[in-house]
């Protein structure tokens, strides 16, 4: 900040303060103006810092699409100018977004890249990365791997923090793994350690402890005690609707086992009422948090757009498929991806992989618009095309013409031009199916292409 003028310095200080104190409205009213001035000053570190802050705040208020958009628009800039810590922070944020979207494969890919960077250049980030990897493996029910990374996270925490401090989040995660592995006595010891530190804590740590403790009681077959604990916690926090929704969900699963039908239905009714309150809170919070710094009329369009390629995403497919499928009686679905995509990433870097995906989407998007086909990025380097025509001959010709168009394309990266090899699976039917049924059928054909000879189109009637 040495060479900045005094006004810009004050703005940077204020913006950091707004972010640190979670003053969301003030932050967003100022951030774009400050970033624009910082770009003129070529203050790359600060530009990336506030870009990541912006994505983080969008994530915190559950605007995952906007968070993704911010990161995608600045990916090349971060790759070029970001330091190691910022690149790790960028990858951690991407992983968190994909995890929230239940795309665990993508989340793991970003976490693994963050881990490689941290292990090679900056080990101070490994506490968080190892913890997140532990959570990933837990969700995959790979408990031995989850335990290993939990132990690594706690070891790094112990080595880098003041003596006597505890990482309650890591301890809770460790206890959950031990419960899943039926190591209940060890889990009990950890739960007691955490409980002693949470007696005055009414935050998310308390909620996590209650849920884990109830799970431990369930493993001990102490269902009545677990039910009573949940009832007590709900009664103590009547206005914490989101909190109580999670507790009521646990309560109802116990109530079905241990209570009379009358009590069970009462608990279900309470759960429904709490869910309604949560939904009302969510809508109000979303509108309040976004209306001051986002064009709400454009928000739905953004929600349907893949931020990397600017083509439609899976959410658009989910919401428009039913109406779209009624136009004709002849249907075809194509699923395709880039051959040897991992090798592109490994050889030229992940930014090059993103550019390959972007170039492929750019090359064919206009074609699909002209043909009035639905073109969607389904995930990773995999794309989904849904097309209808007046006859089987028409949809077959469409599939072959598109494949020929695509294989004529090439991939350009840093003055190098490489052929773009694409494998494609296509299915045809005279009756409609759900979009997931279509995908599974076409994806199985794509798998056969990959197994036999990449770079081809295989076609099947279903």
From TrEMBL:
<dbReference type="InterPro" id="IPR011990">
    <property type="entry name" value="TPR-like_helical_dom_sf"/>
</dbReference>
<dbReference type="Pfam" id="PF00990">
    <property type="entry name" value="GGDEF"/>
</dbReference>
<dbReference type="InterPro" id="IPR043128">
    <property type="entry name" value="Rev_trsase/Diguanyl_cyclase"/>
</dbReference>
<dbReference type="GO" id="GO:1902201">
    <property type="term" value="P:negative regulation of bacterial-type flagellum-dependent cell motility"/>
</dbReference>
<protein>
    <recommendedName>
        <fullName>GGDEF domain-containing protein</fullName>
    </recommendedName>
</protein>
<dbReference type="InterPro" id="IPR000160">
    <property type="entry name" value="GGDEF_dom"/>
</dbReference>
<dbReference type="GO" id="GO:0043709">
    <property type="term" value="P:cell adhesion involved in single-species biofilm formation"/>
</dbReference>
<dbReference type="InterPro" id="IPR029787">
    <property type="entry name" value="Nucleotide_cyclase"/>
</dbReference>
<feature type="domain" description="GGDEF">
    <location>
        <begin position="329"/>
        <end position="462"/>
    </location>
</feature>
<dbReference type="InterPro" id="IPR050469">
    <property type="entry name" value="Diguanylate_Cyclase"/>
</dbReference>
<dbReference type="GO" id="GO:0052621">
    <property type="term" value="F:diguanylate cyclase activity"/>
</dbReference>
<dbReference type="GO" id="GO:0005886">
    <property type="term" value="C:plasma membrane"/>
</dbReference>
